[in-house]
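Deviations from the work plan: none for this task. Representative record:
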Amino acid sequence: AQCFEFPLPCYSSPISFSFINHLVDFSYVGIDAILEQMRRKAMKQGFELNIMVVGQSGLGKSTLMNTLFKSKVSRKSVLATSQEKIPKTIEIKSISHDIEEKGVRMKLTVIDTPGFGDQINNENCWQPIMKFINDQYEAYLQEEININRKKRIPDSRVHCCIYFIPPTGHCLRPLDVEFMKRLSKVVNIVPVIAKADTLTLEERDFFKKKIREELRSNGIDVYPQKEFDEDAEDRMINEKIREMIPFAVVGSDQEYQVNGRRLLGRKTKWGTIEVENIAHCEFAYLRDLLIRTHMQNIKDITSSIHYEMYRVRRLNESNTAVTQANGIPEHHLSAHEM
Amino acid sequence: MASTEIARQAGEGARAVPLSGHVGFDSMPDQLVNKSVNHGFCFNILCVGETGLGKSTLMDTLFNTKFEGEPTQHNQPGVTLKSNTYELQESNVRLKLTMVNTVGFGDQINKEDSYKSIVEFIDAQFEAYLQEELKIKRTLHSYHDTRIHACLYFIAPTGHSLKSLDLVTMKKLDSKVNIIPIIAKSDAISKSELAKFKIKITSELVSNGVQIYQFPTDDESVAEINSTMNSHLPFAVVGSTEEVKIGNKMVKARQYPWGTVQVENENHCDFVKLREMLIRVNMEDLREQTHTRHYELYRRCKLEEMGFKDTDPDSKPFSLQETYEAKRNEFMGELQKKEEEMRQMFVQRVKEKEAELKEAEKELHEKFDRLKKLHQDEKKKLEEKKKALDDEVNTFKQKKTAAELLLNQAQQAGGSTTLKRDKERKNFF
């Protein structure tokens, strides 16, 4: 049914000696049909994405989620409560949605962390979050080492954690630094400046520079991490992104009429902020990064780096426990500190 | 399958929400494909069949290239597997193709063990992957997957039925690999015979319970073509790398005095169907089936064999690791015991040898003593004899001195006496 007859020149890379062969004939074999096969398989299986939002209450986390996915995906939209009470302790609430676009199905899970940073004493408020993330890794690991395991292991691992920085305009707060320092080691962190419509462009640039400096001086690696750049092309793209983070975002799920078009925005007495206008805020960059270009990469880093690190740690821990029980001296590294 | 997938997701607490605008995650399949393109693909084919059925030629024809190798001899003592890896590229797709050939299959007089080396090879690839998966520090995403994705089984074009070797081998392989049976050198069979042959083969496979690979029919876009192709199995193929001019085109063909068999002509043989199914439509499915069905089965059996069990959730944590440790200690204990036994045996032997040597030494000593004693006795005797001799000499000397003395006395006493004596003596006479 799909027999092409036009000749395609084929090259082979001039590397090794023992097993590289040259395609000397010029007829079409059809190897590249595998791309279409993969695409079909992916469409049939669908995708999974788990995003966590962390930040003090009132920073617009739910609105931003709704804006990103153009639908009511946030916890507030689903579990409508008339009065939003700030919980006494941090809770972890995750809601899943099935969304579909042009035949591509995705199971999106939004994990909300109400209560974070809202107490008077916020010591160790990152612990429940760390625990949740590690629990997801644990669940995946348990399923993976089963003898009878599922065809597709359900992936509940947190792929990306969006951290909301309040738009003070000065610098990061100690809570921000502590949180990001610890969590950047186990999950991809994407920091954003929330409610950025309160900052002028100059204030915004100053704030961003300050934040980047502080991240650097504290050794915090946010996504996209420098050490995981795959090749020169990757590095070039990611460097541009690294020079722009944290993105200054504004969220909205209200549409307004602007210049004859209906756009998402926030209407004030002095003007309407267009959410998807890059001259107004950087929401579009965030959306492009998270969804349109780097979604697969975010999931890959979670599964092949963060998860693997967890697995190594966990297996070594269990190893030492067993060897100690047998009286054999252990020479393994001690467990990662929380 | 698609519908159950959605149902499952919905059942797990996910709700379907409509989108009010373009989000952009429809680019996900593209992102995934791009990542795979950068990574490259690998595909491993195993060709099983008797020598001389045209396996190498068919591979050359399928992939439009001349893979190296000379035709194998027929006098191999057993079945060995030879694998070669090639890197092919078409537009932006890089494929690492590994072809494994069975050398000497069907050539021996006694073919009872022919299938064994094939099964061992397939298992060895699964084992290598399993080892990598079980490692603590592992690199699965850059692992070169050598598991066999497709097994092309070459059936000799006898026109009658399957050989018993074919049935036995396929039965042993059907739970380990995707088998695609093909009739080799099918230009030796006429069209009517071919139809009968195919029916016979299919019925023999079914009646013997051999599970060959079925092209998947659950995806609507390929369901139709796959189910049509399923009914054409086994594919009757002809391979050729030589080109013949037909009309105004150069086509791959085999030229006979009575006509030319065109490889890519669907009326002449099923080569095009094979290429379509193997490469252009189902390559990804073959890889997936290998990973999710055959490999999982191997893994399950292997782990259960090693003694691991899925325990209940309470005692779950790392039953794998703990059991592994326990087994390792058990093994170490056994090893130590064996070592101890060997050491003891060695000590025993040493003792025995030592005793032997001591015995020998003792004997030597005794002999020495005996000889010494003999020597002493001899010496003693000799001394006695010497003494006796000395005594005799002494006595003789004494007698001599006495005699001389007497003589002197006699001479002194007077010559008369001597004369007298002489006279007496003379008178005597």
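Chain B touches chain A through 89 residues (CB under 8 Å).
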